[in-house]
Amino acid sequence: MERVKSGPFEHLTPHEPQGIRMTQLDWQRASTDEDEGAGAYLEVAAGPDGQIYMRESNDPETVVVTTQAKWDAFLKGVKAGEFDDFAEEAGEDVAESAAEAVTEE
After folding, report:
1. For 54, which of 30, 73, 90, 100 is 20 to 30 Å away at the CA?
2. Where do the DUF397 domain residues begin and end (predicted)?
3. 42-46/51-56 β-pairing
4. Residue 83 per-residue DSSP state
5. pLDDT tens string for the chain (105 positions)?
């Protein structure tokens, strides 16, 4: 796979073998079994090379790679609430869309 640098992450394109088979990684999905099939989910795996691999469940060929240190910093930010504003904005958009759909019926 070919690495393409984009900000703090590197994007892997599925053109060149990397020596790491994505199918052999232990992918962890950010959903419960009850949510299975309900949409795209983030999947994360730690590679034998010390890198962290991320992909969306509906596009497993597209993989983003970052270092363990950057992943740890990201998780620390999530736990500290640094990204809560983004979740609130997304929730407001969903609520507004739902309200509009109900109003139009």
Report:
1. 90
2. 26-79
3. antiparallel
4. T
5. 444 444 555 555 443 335 678 888 999 987 665 656 667 888 999 999 999 999 998 888 899 999 999 999 999 998 999 988 877 766 665 555 544 544 444
Q: What CA–CA distance (Å, rounded) separates 28 from 43? A: 5
Residue type, 51: Q
Task: Extract the tokens encoding 105.
Answer: 């019926």
Domain positions in the chain are 2-104
Query: Two tokens at 50?
Result: 């010390």
Buried b (16+ CB within 10 A) or exposed e, 18-29: bebebeebebee
Helices marked H in 1-105 — which ranges?
A: 68-79, 84-104
CA distance 70 to 77: 11
